[in-house]
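Bug report

Summary: structure tokens for Quinol oxidase subunit 2 differ between web form and batch submission.
Environment: batch mode, default settings.
Steps: 1) Submit the sequence below via batch. 2) Compare with the web form result.

Sequence submitted:
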Amino acid sequence: MMFALLLLAATGCTENIIVLDPKGPIAAQQRDLMVFSTILCSIVIVPVLIMTAVIIWRYRDKKGRAAKYTPNWEHSTKLEVTWWSIPIAIILTLGIVTAKATYALEPSKPLASDRETLVVQVTSLDWKWLFQYPEQGIATINELKIPEDVPIRFEITADSPMNSFWIPQLGGQMYAMSGMAMKLHLQADERGTYWGSGANFTGKDFAKMVFDVEATTQEEFDEWVRHVKAASPALTMDGYEQLVKPAASEAKTFSSFPEGLFEMTVTKYASSHHHGLSAKEQQPAEGNRSKGHHH
């Protein structure tokens, strides 16, 4: 099985395995780590599987069997050194590489870029995703649009049972939990539409918590923001209370949202845990305060 997966990866037959088709720097590093770990482990697994088949065939019970019969054999220093030293070397190598990758891919670590980071606040609801753009003053349901080559800082929480926010082609998943504000930095290196979803069971319609992530040019993104602000209704507190109720939803856009809605969602569960967010980042965005998005 492992050999078959390696063969598929080597021959490029990964069209439907989106985690092996990264479109961002974080996903690319995670893909490389998975491939490296798989190849490293196969150094032990593949020979063991081959030897198992050979031993079963050679030492099968049959008339005229030519295999040497040595019932009193019990030790070989060469074999002991071989089958202990190779796995130990592999485990040490895998441990060092994984430890370095863990620190390098720490999700709250900002991405190096000469472009300004875009903040998107993500709230998991039953059974839908609310995306708020505090700097642009707009919000969406199950629709996420970002500019290409721009670092995105996702601030993630939940006003529902715990879920997991995941865009496989851009990076690994991050849990959305009530009373907590998690941080995840991702980036799309090229234009395209990528699949996103909730990756944690949260009830009857959890399978409908999917959304498209559209990476566009900066100009197209700015035009989309202007269109949303001009043509979409405002999200009021009454409207938000309706969104919180358990129900699936189609994609929607809102020209504004209540000031400090994300922070209110995090703090209303009386939790002091704000993983990855500083006290300053927990405050309502300046753009929201200056534009008066309180309805």
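Above is the batch result. After comparison, the two runs are identical; trailing whitespace caused the diff. Residues 2-60+73-104 form one domain. The chain has two domains: 2-60+73-104, 118-291.
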